[in-house]
Write a structure and sequence with these properties.
The chain is mostly helical. The chain folds into 2 domains: 5-123, Serine Threonine Protein Phosphatase 5, Tetratricopeptide repeat (Alpha Horseshoe), CATH 1.25.40; 134-296, Lysozyme (Orthogonal Bundle). The protein is built from 14 helices and 2 strands; from the N terminus they run ααααααβαααααααβα. The protein has helices spanning 5-17, 28-44, 52-64, 68-80, 88-100, 104-109, 154-163, 171-182, 202-207, 216-233, 238-247, 249-255, 262-275, 293-296; strands spanning 134-135, 282-283. The chain has a two-stranded parallel sheet with strand order 1-2.
Length: 299
């Protein structure tokens, strides 16, 4: 009987350490793939005793990291009662998550399953967000200009320094979004027609009165207006703000946290790494809090 792949990986890393030739740490993508492969092995009894419960646990672990194949496989197990109790609502949840990431077989399954239920599977529930402090009339304390970290062109950084305080957004957070969205390319345009420095889609540009999305100042103002709104909506939780900027607040509310999309999970990670912020002051007068925020904080 073969050892599970994760165990083999750990044994291999330990075995090479004595020779001072240890391999570099496994990447997140590799760990997700290994978890999926282990799940397949336990689901089908390939080299290990068949263990559907363990398979479901491993699939869900990878699904939480945005792995569409694991989401689909787990949905199939729940839809067919394959070694675990059949649950059509849970199957629908995972089929939808995989379909939203474009997995063709999951898209086809949407014709056979209904809308996902309101319950989030336990293993998919995000950790409770850190609560930020509210601000009213006083502006947010900003990163001092001398301490800003950015490799962007000076004229864009200077624009951010000037405009960000008007929207009570820390310039460092604004620069993080610009870097991740467009890498400071003023004329960047995505296949989905997101435009300019902060990659505003036409609907967002119209929502925040941006007439010329490729004008750097207008684009920054539109992006910062949206970030200010999201900060108020999610009460200063930068993780949720980043997730909503990428995937939309509707998806964040529906999943009650960061949606299980590989793209969005990676996007949030880059924003947090670049900004070095988990929370940010917010203005409660901008908008009411998300109706799902209280539920998110119970997880």
């Amino acid at each position: 009987m073969r050892l599970p792949l994760l165990l083999l990986l750990l044994c291999g890393l330990a075995g090479t350490a004595w020779a001072q030739q240890a391999e570099p740490p496994a990447s997140d993508d590799l760990l997700v793939r290994l978890a999926r492969e282990e799940a397949v092995a336990y689901e089908n009894g390939e080299g290990v005793p068949r263990d559907p419960a363990r398979a479901a646990q491993l699939y869900c672990q990878a699904a939480r990291q945005g792995d569409a194949e694991s989401q689909y496989n787990l949905a199939w197990m729940y839809a067919n009662g394959r070694g675990i109790e059949r649950n059509d609502a849970t199957a629908s949840f995972f089929f939808h998550a995989a379909a939203e990431q474009g997995l063709p077989q999951a898209v086809r399954m949407l014709e056979r399953v209904g809308q996902p239920g309101t319950d989030i599977p336990d293993c998919m529930r995000p950790p409770a967000p850190v609560v930020a402090a509210a601000v009213q009339a006083t502006p947010a304390a900003a990163t001092p200009a001398a301490e800003l970290r950015s490799n962007g062109p000076k004229y864009i950084v200077d624009l951010v320094k000037t405009i960000a305080p008007e929207y009570r957004v820390d310039p460092q957070l604004a620069l993080a979004f610009i870097q991740v969205e467009s890498n400071f390319d003023v004329v960047a345009q995505s296949p989905k027609n997101a435009q300019g420095l902060m990659q505003l889609i036409p609907e967002t540009a119209a929502r925040f009165n941006v007439k010329r999305p490729f004008d750097p100042a207008q684009n920054i103002r539109g992006g910062l207006a949206y970030i200010r709104w999201l900060l108020a909506y999610y009460r200063g939780d930068v993780t949720l703000v980043a997730a909503a900027y990428n995937a939309g607040e509707g998806a964040v509310n529906r999943y009650r946290g960061v949606p299980p999309y590989a793209e969005t999970l990676g996007y949030v990670s880059r924003i947090l790494k670049s900004s070095r912020m988990l929370t940010h002051p917010f203005d409660t007068t901008v908008t009411e809090a998300s109706p799902q925020l209280a539920v998110m904080r119970k997880f």
